[in-house]
Design a protein that fits this description.
It contains 13 helices and no strands. By secondary structure, the chain is mainly α.
């Protein structure tokens, strides 16, 4: 289903893991004389080695995030960004295939959410440690781990933990919407940062981040950034129409919204909608 018309209920970058329905598949296999639970666990870990490495990277993101938040270790912030970048780079190699010098390959890469997430980590390598920046990778990696461990505990036959992971998986869409809102909040913090440290470096950070948000907005697989922008637009219009909103603030909001709509219209002419894609 095309994301502009029917948003998916599961994030496409997680859809291959999320496609497994909860249930005691291991017990059914054992009753039918199928693979033992140990064999199922080995298959889950070894059949897709690159996927297993990605899970290890996502686990490193969460652990480094905890070290950063709970113990204030700045190296935890750098570590979670590096692990997050590696996980999404490996995922990109899986989805886009071997790199090729062609416009088709470049177009496919730019549409992949894993490339967007790799870019997010890359452009924040030289940032000062920030909880807001670190939350995006940690929440996303936590969602990936919940999906994986749901399958792992299902294969191992640990019903209690499987149900716990199932409860986390049920909050996947809410988590992805939370990440999209955080990405917009980061834009606000970067714009406010221009007031305190105006310079070429600060301006370039905002410009690069705006390009990142442009890719997110026109993602062919995830509708959540578009939803976040729509909600922010509606909130700004509501604020400008509030009886207690000062006239100059209302005028400034309308001018900014008009500029955003003009820029978005120019960008939309360059990004023609892709054919509908099935969630794989």
């Amino acid at each position: 289903t095309h994301p502009h018309t029917h948003p998916t209920t599961l994030h496409p970058t997680m859809s291959d893991e999320s496609s497994t329905q909860p249930g005691d598949a291991g017990a059914a296999n054992n009753a039918a004389g199928g693979p033992t639970r140990l064999a199922q666990v080995k298959a889950l870990l070894l059949d897709d080695l690159m996927g297993t490495v990605q899970i290890v990277c996502h686990l490193a993101v969460v652990l480094a995030g905890l070290a950063f938040v709970l113990m204030g270790r700045s190296d935890g912030f750098v570590g979670l960004l590096r692990a997050f970048a590696l996980a999404n780079l490996l995922r990109l190699l899986q989805r886009a295939g071997r790199p090729r010098l062609s416009m088709e390959f470049l177009s496919n890469v730019l549409r992949e959410d894993c490339f967007h997430l790799f870019l997010f980590a890359f452009i924040h390598f030289d940032e000062r440690p920030s909880v807001v920046i670190g939350l995006c990778p940690v929440v996303y990696s936590g969602l990936k781990l919940a999906v994986f461990f749901h399958k792992f505990f299902q294969a191992a036959g640990v019903g209690v933990l499987q149900r716990a992971m199932q409860a986390l998986c049920a909050r996947q869409v809410a988590g992805l919407r939370f990440i999209a809102n955080l990405e917009l909040l980061l834009l606000v913090t970067k714009l406010l940062g221009l007031v305190t440290s105006f310079g070429f470096h600060s301006i370039m950070k905002v410009v690069v981040y705006l390009h990142f948000l442009q890719l997110r907005y026109f993602s062919q697989r995830s509708p959540y950034s578009r939803e976040a922008w729509g909600n922010a637009h509606a909130a700004a219009v509501s604020l400008s129409q509030h009886p207690r909103c000062p006239g100059f603030v209302s005028m400034l909001i309308h001018r900014v919204l008009a500029l955003v709509e003009k820029v978005r219209g120019m960008i939309q002419q360059q990004h023609q909608p892709a054919p509908p894609q099935h969630v794989d």
